[in-house]
Amino acid sequence: MAEPDFTATEEFLAAGPGDREQPGGQDEFSATGVRIERGLRSLTRAGQVRVRGGLVELLNSGGRVIAAAPAKKVRVLRTRFRRADRVLVQLGGVRYVLTLRDEDAESGASAHDGRGPDGAESPAVRLARTVRLAARPR
What we know:
This protein is of the alpha+beta class and about 140 residues long. The longest helix has 13 residues. The chain is globular, with a radius of gyration of 14 Å.
């Protein structure tokens, strides 16, 4: 099965007013119930993604680290078809496909631009923004 085409982070997130540092330097992000795949292999269906202290971690359902890398060495990409819940994360040269669950997306309101029906950002967009902020020099 062929690997899907992906676009780069810069195209995924246009710089905007939400791309400012949060008060207190909060670069925290955590998502649970994440499906993590590498190539054609599913590593977990109930994993976790964490961005904390400039480190991006992928954890399995038991809380063990699958992969980790400094935010400066992480690329967040999205699928060509712009599914709001699915991104490709490259940690230290290894690609992982993440399917981030969103309550709005599960109710059938999946947006192609990364925004839900109420205009809120999808978890994939929040992850990309948090990684970008965490990678900035302090």
